[in-house]
């Protein structure tokens, strides 16, 4: 019997459970879903819940409800916190390679350097990078644990042609891998979890693009594969920043007082360039004509007036 040796793509959507889903969350989930389903890929939903200060089980339930309400489904569901053992094993491996060090610098001290990093935060100056781990290793560190990067440019482009090349050390500084509160940092968790789930495709917002070179450094240091990346446009607030839970973006429950899932899907499809108008539709209906060539490249400013979600140009949600 002939067997097809071609591996099945494995894709994922990985929202944080630090607040209710908002339009930015939903458009990111829709695009990741359309990419995966159009390729016949296995689609995993990973709820990123490792921030003890902000993530709650109530927000986990809300995220699941919001995505189902929009019409999305998935083949696999997991909580990032369940993979803590693998995160710690990765830290052990990096420690054995001499790549970890303790850092006592506060955020305010780093900000006082005044040097912006590629991701818009503050570049770490490296003040603690010559320190060694204590006798008890990274687990005995009372503070943050950082990755000691080497100088060197990572040459990288994503599927859309976006240039992701950078020297992570000079453009961002040594990243935190375990926070001072004991939580595993995003960079390490995302890389380890993608590899553990066999993820071959990562579709995510362009705000994460500056982190990709650091992720590749970590993948190489841990001997992990690098998935194919694609970064898409963002929904922005009227002030120009990324639409985010932290900034009070309208949540899906409020949207649901005006729209049903199909109606909002139509609004998001128009905003993304996948439809000429905002008529109600479903993710499944959008599959037939889905092509990344039709998805807009530029970010779009949206506003919610309590009755409709509109772009700055006035389109959508009428």
What attributes characterize this protein structure?
318 residues, alpha/beta, Rossmann fold, five-stranded parallel sheet, three-stranded antiparallel sheet, 10 helices, 11 strands, 30% helix, globular
Strand and helix layout:
Elements: E1 10-13, H1 23-39, E2 42-47, H2 57-70, E3 76-79, H3 84-96, E4 100-103, H4 107-111, E5 144-147, H5 168-172, E6 176-178, H6 186-196, E7 201-205, H7 212-222, E8 228-232, E9 235-236, H8 252-255, H9 261-272, H10 283-286, E10 300-304, E11 309-311
Parallel strand pairs: 1-2, 1-7, 2-3, 7-8, 9-10
Antiparallel strand pairs: 4-5, 5-6, 10-11
Helix pairs in contact: 1-9, 3-6, 6-7
- Total strands: 11
Distance between the termini: 55 Å
Number of helices: 10
CATH superfamily of the domain at 85-190: HUPs
Biggest sheet strand order reads 3-2-1-7-8
How confident is the prediction overall: mean pLDDT? 92
Helix content: 25-40%
Radius of gyration: 20 Å
Helices and strands: which structural class?
alpha/beta
Q: What CATH architecture of the domain at 85-190 would you give?
A: 3-Layer(aba) Sandwich
CATH topology of the domain at 85-190: Rossmann fold
Q: What is the highest CATH level, the class of the domain at 85-190?
A: Alpha Beta
Order of helices and strands: EHEHEHEHEHEHEHEEHHHEE
- Main pleated-sheet profile: 5 strands, parallel
Shape: globular
Low-confidence stretches: none
Query: How large a portion of the residues is in β-strands, by DSSP E?
Result: 5-15%
Oligomer: single chain
């Amino acid at each position: 019997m002939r067997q097809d040796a071609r591996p099945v793509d494995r894709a994922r959507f990985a929202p944080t459970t630090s607040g209710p889903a908002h339009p930015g969350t939903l458009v990111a989930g829709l695009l990741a879903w359309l990419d995966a389903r159009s390729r016949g890929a296995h689609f995993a939903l990973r709820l990123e819940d490792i921030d003890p200060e902000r993530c709650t089980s109530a927000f986990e339930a809300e995220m699941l409800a919001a995505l189902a309400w929009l019409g999305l489904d998935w083949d696999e569901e997991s909580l990032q916190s369940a993979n803590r053992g693998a995160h710690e094993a990765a830290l052990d491996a990096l420690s054995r390679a001499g790549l970890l060090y303790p850092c006592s610098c506060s955020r305010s001290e780093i900000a006082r350097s005044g040097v912006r990093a590629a991701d818009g935060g503050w570049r770490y100056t490296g003040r603690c990078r010559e320190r060694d781990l204590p006798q008890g290793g990274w687990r005995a560190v009372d503070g943050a644990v950082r990755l000691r990067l080497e100088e060197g440019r990572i040459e990288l482009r994503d599927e859309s042609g976006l240039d992701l090349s950078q020297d992570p050390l000079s453009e961002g500084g040594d990243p935190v891998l375990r926070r001072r509160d004991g939580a595993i940092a995003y960079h390490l968790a995302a890389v380890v979890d993608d590899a553990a789930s066999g993820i071959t495709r990562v579709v995510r917002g362009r705000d994460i693009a500056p982190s990709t070179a650091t992720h590749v450094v970590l993948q190489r240091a841990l001997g992990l594969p690098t998935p194919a990346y694609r970064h898409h446009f963002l929904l922005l607030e009227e002030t120009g920043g990324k639409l985010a839970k932290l900034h009070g973006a309208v949540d899906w429950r409020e949207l649901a007082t005006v729209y049903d899932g199909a109606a909002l899907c139509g609004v998001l499809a128009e905003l993304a360039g996948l439809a000429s108008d905002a008529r109600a539709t479903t993710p499944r209906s959008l599959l037939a004509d889905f092509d990344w060539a039709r998805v807009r490249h530029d970010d779009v400013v949206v506003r919610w007036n309590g009755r409709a979600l509109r772009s700055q140009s006035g389109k959508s949600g009428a």
